[in-house]
Amino acid sequence: MRLRNKPISLLLPLLQPPPLPLRHRRCLSSLLANGRAAPCRRFSTDGPAPQPVIGQDSVEVLGHSYPRDDFTNVTPKVLAKVGRNLHNQSHHPLWLIKERIKAHFYSAYMGRWGNPLFSVHDNLSPVVTVEQNFDSLLIPPGHPSRKRGDNYYLNRTTMLRGHTSAHQMELVRSGLDAFLLAGDVYRRDEIDTSHYPVFHQMEGVRLFSNHELFSAVHNGEELSLFESGGRRTPHKQEAHSLEAVKLLEFDLKRTLTRLVAHLFGQDLEVRWVDCYFPFTHPSFEMEVRFQEDWMEVLGCGVMEQEMLNSAGAGNKAGWAFGLGLERLAMVLYSIPDIRLFWSEDERFLKQFRVQDVQQPVCFQSFSKYPPLLNDISFWLPESRDSFTENDFYELVRSIGGDLVEKVSLVDEFQHPKTGRWSHCYRIIYRHMERTLTQQEVGIVHQQIERAAQTELGVQGRY
């Protein structure tokens, strides 16, 4: 039986605010502007992987074949990144961030027998089902995140994961109560120095039984994770008791505050912002004060109980968080361009070969080669809805690859008589390791112009 007259008062000794605001003290010279298989198929992607192939009728990736259909939109350049696993390459900056997070959780959270509480899973296949990527996370059928224009689909039922959360339910279903998950994720997006179609995420999940959550509370055995007949409010789910949510939220925020203190140092100012995710409620974003501005670094919240019920963990409640490894690495190591993470240039890689993963690193740019700017203008198809900017960005990426630093819409107008719309995009070309010539850029740019007309149905104005 729960104590109905004083449950929250019992928690007051535990519900102290997180540690005092922290202030950053690392070497941070550049601000990052921005910067997401059948169930239980856990074959490793470590080591050499078979070369992916996009055939006429199928897509071959990681040794498996997937039939093509009208939803297939994955490109050769993106598939070529599958199996690279930058987060598992020793002394790569993304590996360093992952190892620092692992080391913190290993040392700060121990199990009953002195072993690490959190297990780590960083080699799950990025090929997942649509059900894993969306349905298992309660993302509704009409949600914008499902759009073909925002994801890389192998076919209507299979895709490259858009977030590492695609594996949450299978890991919970396997009986895990506390785990960290890291991997490469794939999204079609804009083109600039902080967006790339492949990036890396790391997330954590922690589940509590009734005894685990209330064990440190006086008379905690009389409290319960759940209540019957409850209602959903901005602060709790209908199934959860208010005292359970307060303790879950406290434990989550304390855990993440300690994590960013471990990564950034003790002088970092932190704040929490309420937000919305389909798979957590309540949900929060953590922001840190950096270079006189607030920057979002992770999202988190109390896991939707419906998910845990469907995964066979209905007697527990828990929290989850997710963060982008590139975003943290660009800030912590002062890396100015997201394309650098894919560089094999020794001048980049050698800067991260440190003796201790906790050793501070401040990236020293080895050169900044001059950019080349070229514009492309065209009339959109008469059915304007048939054109999306992400389709154009993907076409530019598929042809220009990492030569393209940024694509931006610089002008648009509607013809007063015909009503047709015209777009003008500026494409900035810059090689990360040498100087480009206008002649070689011109060849690429002409290929983009021709492909835009044939593949997107636009009419060139060049």
Give a verbal description of the structure.
Helix content is about 25%, strand content about 25%. Residues about 1-45 have low confidence and may be disordered. The protein has helices at about 5-10, 75-80, 95-110, 130-135, 170-175, 210-215, 240-265, 305-310, 325-330, 345-350, 390-400, 440-455; strands spanning about 55, 60, 65, 120, 125-130, 160, 180-185, 200-210, 270-275, 280-290, 295-305, 315-325, 370-380, 405-415, 420-430, 460. About 35% of the residues are buried. It has about 450 residues and is α+β, with helices and mostly antiparallel strands. The strands form four sheets. It has a seven-stranded mixed β-sheet with strand order 4-7-8-12-11-10-9. A four-stranded antiparallel β-sheet has the order 14-15-13-16. Strands 1-2-3 form a three-stranded antiparallel β-sheet, with no helix packed on it.
Structural descriptors:
12 helices; 24% helix; 462 residues; alpha+beta; disordered N terminus; single chain; four-stranded antiparallel sheet
In brief:
The chain is of the alpha+beta class. It has helices spanning about 5-10, 75-80, 95-110, 130-135, 170-175, 210-215, 240-265, 305-310, 325-330, 345-350, 390-400, 440-455, and strands spanning about 55, 60, 65, 120, 125-130, 160, 180-185, 200-210, 270-275, 280-290, 295-305, 315-325, 370-380, 405-415, 420-430, 460. Strand 1 (about 55) and strand 2 form a beta hairpin.
